[in-house]
Amino acid sequence: MPLEPSLVPRAQPSVTSLHLAPAKTTAVYDSYWRFAVERQLIFFRRAAGLPRPWTDHPVLATYKFTNAYRASDRVSQYLIRNVIYRDDLPDSPTEVVFRTLLFKLFNKIETWRLLEHAVGPISYETYRFSDYDRVLSSAMAKGIRIYSAAYIMPPGGTAFGCSAKHQNHLKLLERMMADRLPDKLAAARTMQQGFELLLAYPTIGDFLAYQFITDINYSQVTDFSEMEFVVPGPGARDGLRKCFADNGGLSDSELIRLMADQQSEECARLGLEFPSLWSRPLQLIDCQNLFCEVDKFARAVHPGATGRTGRTRIKQKFVADGERIDFWYPPKWGINDRIEAGAVPNEAASPSPSFEPAQRLAGA
Q1: β-strands 24-25, 244-246: how paired?
Q2: Domain coordinates of the chain in residue numbers?
Q3: Which long-range contacts (CB under 8 A, 24 or more apart) does 140-148 make?
């Protein structure tokens, strides 16, 4: 499917979609939708086992960007399949929440594997602070990074008094479990209630609480709609500033909801056909993440667009991970049977030029 070309910044300062009035958008806004479509096509091409290149866009081919859908990313997939839904581990709310939060505090697959190799099956019933501390302290002494760089966990020393960051986070998890947080989350009627339960703990701010409740909601402990509630992170706020010249009096959360609500209309306006996640449309968490990724994307494609942080470079280049992922999602989404049937959008059958060539992007 030839996608509409032109990610070259428009000459006019802003454009307004009839769907978005009174908010006024910039050229980056249209790039948001083109990016979302091409990034999702890249996902399907990789999932289908097609060889590189998966895209003709020089920026998308060079730099690392997360998937259009948060649950499709490597770390989320590992969490869903290898931490939450494990046939060999207990599935009670206590055990599932314990495992989920332990994984997310470090957000690193290698750290989970390190712990599991050293202490055996991860379980709250067998958890001992001294055992986990010994493993993690030993890894750090060897120069092994135990935290992901995806987001920064506050050290928590003031709240818990330990000298090492990971010790404070283990103590945080212990407090949550002592408070019977899993039972409280299971009883929560809305995603916001679950968010507020997490937010009440030291070192957990708005962004982390939203990320954590989203991860817990992949499990059977809760069953909230991902269209219920959204909290924009710092990167998403930068992307919002680049996409909207005027927010029309809407908050950042309202703008994200507007994106989710209008995704079909906006893609149609641009002549785009978005290949959904096996009929699951973009959710609020996905639209939030896309703003973060478009903030990075715009640094190369729309260098004149500025966000709040003023960053001008994309730091991480894409490096293919050799470990194949058999994509699998929370069963309650009802899409795993479609994956097993091998359904892949026709547009992803082979790479197609979606954007302007590199020389046009460079202004040649």
Answers
A1: antiparallel
A2: 24-72+229-361, 86-216
A3: 140/164, 140/166, 144/110, 144/114, 145/108, 146/106, 146/108, 146/111, 146/114, 147/106, 147/107, 147/108, 147/111, 148/75, 148/106, 148/107, 148/108
Contact predicate 125/92, CB 8 Å = no
Buried b (16+ CB within 10 A) or exposed e, 339-361: beeeebbebbeebeebbbeeeeb
**Residue 25's closest CA among 237, 240, 243, 241?**
243
Distance from C-alpha of 164 to C-alpha of 133, rounded to nearest angstrom: 9
Q: Could you give the CA distance from residue 32 to residue 16 in angstroms, rounded to a whole number?
A: 15
Question: Would you state the structure tokens that stand for residue 161, as one six-digit string?
Answer: 């008094």
What's the first-to-final CA gap in the chain, in angstroms?
Answer: 26
Which residue is it, tokens 């703003």?
A: 291
The structure tokens listed for 180 are 């019977």
Instruction: Tell me the C-alpha distance between 15 and 24, whole Å.
Output: 6
How many CA atoms are closer than 13 Å to the CA of 257, on its beta-carbon side?
Answer: 11
Task: For residue 29, give the nearest of 7, 51, 44, 56 by alpha carbon.
Answer: 7
Q: Alpha carbon of 9 to those of 27, 242, 270, 315, 348: distances in Å?
A: 6, 12, 15, 22, 26
How many whole angstroms from its chain centre is CA 88?
27
What does the alpha-carbon distance between residue 12 and residue 10 come to, in Å, rounded to a whole number? 5
Amino acid at 259: M
Summarised one tens digit per residue, pLDDT across range 6-50 is: 333 333 334 445 456 678 999 999 999 999 999 999 999 988 888
Nearest alpha carbon to residue 177 among 252, 129, 124: 124
Other beta carbons less than 10 A from residue 297's beta carbon: 26
Name residue 304's amino acid.
Answer: G
For 138-158, the pLDDT digits (tens) are 999 999 999 998 777 888 778
* Full-model pTM: 0.88
Where do we find the tokens 């590199």? 358
CA distance readout (Å), 183 to 65, 72, 91, 215: 36, 28, 13, 16
